[in-house]
Design brief:
Helices cover about 40% and strands about 20% of the residues. The protein has 8 helices and 7 strands. The protein has a single domain, classed as Vaccinia Virus protein VP39 (Rossmann fold).
Amino acid sequence: MAGTVLSVAALDHRVVDRCYATFASVYDRVCGDVLQAGRHEAIRELNLEGGEDVLEVGIGTGLTASLYPGTCRVTGIDASAAMLREAASHIGPGRNIELMRMDAHHLTFPSESFDVVYAAYVMSVVADPVVALREMRRVCRAGGRIVLLNHFLSHAPLASRFERLISPLTARIGFRSDVDLHLLLEHAGLHAVSIRKVNRPRIWSLVRCQREASHGGKSLVAACHPQGDADDHAQHGEKERKELEDEHRPVSSLHVGHCGQEG
């Protein structure tokens, strides 16, 4: 049931940060096997070729790292230092995967830096999915692939009403249950080349887009909320970006003492 609102819920990045800081050490045991089938299908969907530059937004604990072919150059970013610490321990030396702490809303890479940009289970946990996706689009080269793996608002009327109903509750534990894929793509200036269901139960979608010529768009926070709410979101997003701006460096340079709860 697509509508005119991206989501009925607002996310506080501090809640998300606390969740990942708390559960980073057990994330793989809780969410690894349940969601890993979708990751395998996503890597196949990327259709990677030797020598391509890949950006994974929200690499988390690095559950996808072992699935990448060794012929690609992979950069994995995440806003959570705790999750990146787990990823660094899992990936180990010898892999051509660079980990960096970075805010998905404010990628520090030059435009058109990557052939492939991939985000798994990210669009539900960022403060402004449109801004994040527009940034993913910006850093993707013309003709490149952008692949999303996520739960999105159902097309079934009863299911979508339920997802809208519980989203303010799920936001309290760090994710939205009702992100509207159609509106997300529209406002990010993208269109889907393919969409298919993955995982079991099949309530997650694997979405592949192709990056075309740049054109404008605007955040759905501004498009779908009263101006006051939009201003609050903008101020909140700017504060978060400033907090993380100095952290955009390889995770190997992070001190252990800095890897706890942020914000």
